[in-house]
Amino acid sequence: MAHVEAITTGEILQVYEMCLSNINLGKMRDLRNDAKLRAVNTTATYEEFEDIVNCAHLKPFRKGEKEREKLIKNPRWNTSI
Fold first, then answer.
1. By C-alpha distance, which of 25, 22, 28 is closest to 58?
2. From CA 74, how far away is CA 54, in angstroms rounded?
3. Distance between CA 30 and CA 21 in Å, rounded?
4. Among 31, 63, 66, 37, residue whose Cα is nearest residue 49
5. Closest CA to 29 of 51, 48, 60, 57
6. How far apart are CA 31 and CA 48, in angstroms?
7. CA dihedral 63, 64, 67, 72 (to 10 degrees)
8. Residues 7-16: pLDDT tens digits?
9. DSSP 4-49
10. pLDDT digits (tens, 9 = 90+) for 16-53
11. Which of 13, 43, 55, 61 shows the greatest Cβ crowding within 10 Å of its Cβ?
């Protein structure tokens, strides 16, 4: 019988991270492709098309997020006021 080497924890983590990376790359490819298909019929210039495709991964603000973002950028240092 041939000698079989044991798989180390580091190798398993490396394969796991590689799989997650490939899944994320696939999701990004799908988002960009969907944006391309939408933008082809709605844009007048290549620059508009490119902007839409490059922003495909961004998500719009949900209710309340904009106010929270303002508080993060301009925090109140003296909360007793």
1. 28
2. 29
3. 14
4. 37
5. 57
6. 17
7. -120
8. 899 999 999 9
9. -PPPPHHHHHHHHHHHHHHHHHHHHHHHHHHHHHHHHHH-SSHHHH
10. 999 999 999 999 999 999 999 989 989 899 999 999 88
11. 43
